[in-house]
Here is the input.
Amino acid sequence: MGKISDSLHYFSVNNFSFTGNFNEDVKKYIEHENISLYNQDLDENNYVFILYRLSFGRNITVHTLTDGVVEKIKNIKIDNVPNKIPKFMKQSFLVEARHDKTLFDNIQSIGGFIYNDEMFLIIGIQGNEFYCQRERLSFDGRKIEDINFLYNKNINYGSFIGQKTRKDTFAFITVLSLMLEAEKTPVLIDNGVKNMGIN
Here is the structure.
């Protein structure tokens, strides 16, 4: 499985005192865990995963999408980035498919957070693999295909670079965020049963 929520449990914060300020918490955690500068490369997935866990604070909220919501999102095409960041994406978020299903293709989870004016997306794919995408908060109406994800040029990612630079992950979470703003409540799917689209 590529569920990010399962992997977040491995990062214990029980003995860590959160300040409520994400940047301060990062500094404190680095000192607390004695993380070397070498391991603080923002493209290094383990360090980014630590930042992601800290960005939630003490509690993590996981949004599980029903099949109906997933289909609704996949059927909406978005060509341009919004002119301002959607509210849902301003805070740390984690969106997952139900059970062992996928959101699309082989992607089971999409998480995200903002750090130093960059948007980080963490993608969980089947097979318990994860990768990170970084983008400079460019919510300026540009075409989604023109987004330039940031990655370490000194690393040879091989065929993996195709995953790190794919744009449909960003489009998926943007569509969900805009739907939540438009409807002001969790997305509802009328399938004959009263069912919240996100739980």
